[in-house]
Specification:
Elements (H helix, E strand, L loop, with lengths): L1 H47 L18 H16 L5 E2 L9 E3 L4 E2 L2 E5 L9 E2 H16 L2 E8 L5 E4 L2 E6 L7 E9 L4 E3 H4 L5 H13 L2 E5 L12 E5 L22
Parallel strand pairs: 4-6
Antiparallel strand pairs: 1-2, 2-5, 3-4, 6-9, 7-8, 9-10, 9-12, 11-12
Helix pairs in contact: 2-3
Length: 259
Amino acid sequence: MRRPVLVLALLAGVTAPAAAKTGKKTTDKKAAKKSDKRAARESTKVSASHHFKADNMPRGWQWPPSRTMESVEKTCEQKLDALGVTWQAATREGHVTDAIVVPDMTLGGVQFLGTYTKDRPQMMDCELALAWTSFAPQLHELGVTEVHFGSIYRWTKVRAFGKTKDVLSRHALGLAMDVAYFVDGAGRQAWVGRDYKSGDELLLNVEKAVNDSGLFRLLLTPKNDPISHKDHFHFEANPDFTPLPAEDPLPDDPDRVDI
């Protein structure tokens, strides 16, 4: 009588794990589907916000400014001089490394006007002025004569995709500009909030030219951020404050005579 019981017990022992294994497969499939969906969501989030570094600061940036940063900005000033830009040193605010104003707010022959502050020049970092001056020839080719902006410097955090991130914005560095609309040679105003979605040719051409130029770190538009940038273009200058590598010492020369 013991032998049938033993056989039944063995059969039960084999069958039970098999059933458990089958159930686990079903559970694994459900978990895999959930994981795939979660991964897809995360992938979308990453692709939507891939422009933002963890700290959103330029390469080599630190505060207070390092000697390298000051040297880079001095070079920036020399480039503005060479390009014929009339500028003046300004009182530093926030984390602006090289605060300047351009009294007539003309960069490369293009007039920049504050949508809400047309009566006074706006403080910015030299690098932002240099980026726009360098890009001005392409604006001329597109027929742009005026750029109307909402803000340049302001102490604020990054706001993107409807959320405020705990990261300092490049507006606080004087390296960002929000543009509300452009004016062409005929006096037509191309408003980002009104005309972009309808496929305005001028706005689309500006967008393409900026992305192709490599002169700006990024351009946020109603297309890549339809929530927080639905009514303006957000431009960011892209300085590099990384220290240059130290020169390697000359190898020892056995025939050298030190005097």
